[in-house]
Amino acid sequence: MSNRKEVLGKLWAHFNFSLNSLVDRIVLQKTIYVLSYLNYPNLGDYKKDFAMYIHGPYSPLLAHDAYDLSENLKIKSGFSETEEEKVSLFEESVKFAAEGNNKLEHFMACELVADIIFLYSNEKVRDENKLFEILKEKKTYFNDSAKVFAVANFLKEKKII
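Given the sequence above, the corresponding structure tokens read:
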């Protein structure tokens, strides 16, 4: 059975993360948050550690492991069928969030998906208008209610939330 650092290494290789970039560190945090929410194998320690910060869900444990991994980079690649399904679902969700009339940069789309899931699952926000108001207050660039509603509905249709 893999431990969380081995799993993180596989995901690191797949998404080609770099700790030299703030954007990559943000995307790493959001990616692992969403995958842990989807019950991706061996990410449970991270799931319990996430809290809402400036750029959405953040795990100090994940940050520590990522820096440790980057210093001792021995990555094995390859996913099981279950892992591949969850990674594909995450990628599909981010792609949906990035596209449309009001296009978002990749890291903003990751942040929007992770924030909606976090607010839905941890804060129990179910009303879309309330969801939008919280996001708009915390993130001034999430000012398109139609985008927030569409992404929330997409996540509901995919049975993510």
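The longest strand covers residues 51-53. Try to locate this feature in the token string yourself.
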